[in-house]
Structure prediction request, 180 residues.
Amino acid sequence: MIRDVLRMGDPRLFQLSEPVQAFDTPELHALIADMRDTMAHLDGAGLAAPQIGVLLRVVIFGVKSNPRYPDAEEVPETVLINPVLTPLGGTDEDIEYAWEGCLSVPGMRGVVPRWRRLRYQGFDQYGGVIDREVSDFHARVVQHECDHLDGILYPMRIRDLRQFGYTEVLFPDGSMAGDD
Ligand code: NI
Prediction:
């Protein structure tokens, strides 16, 4: 079922979400089905459970080759629960700045610093272990989605607010159409 996505200003987006305690349950599968329907409907790259008002540490993401992300590598369709992120590297050179959008901040884009390389660990909906080392766009998507679990929206990480604005003004050629 397609659910409403909360927009910035809703206090639920600033809450700390709780870990999932039980895997492979009907409730968890129903939540993920709703998240998938909602993300597909809005053509998003990822979605976190709190964005539909469920304060659990569940994110989904995935990008097939998409004209909206001309420079983006593909990111495998992933369900990631109770994630733990570990930056790899750790110097300023390991930080990359790039444009992001968010389904909870429709119509806008901003330049956000993220770790370029990252290890992420967690579980899928069946309790299977996920443990990956990724970089660049894949790493960025994971960091963006997992931030939602800690009540952080990307505008809170922008260093220079001059690099934050309306998508159609920033990219009048339509190259960044869509909301996330
Ligand atoms: Ni987002």
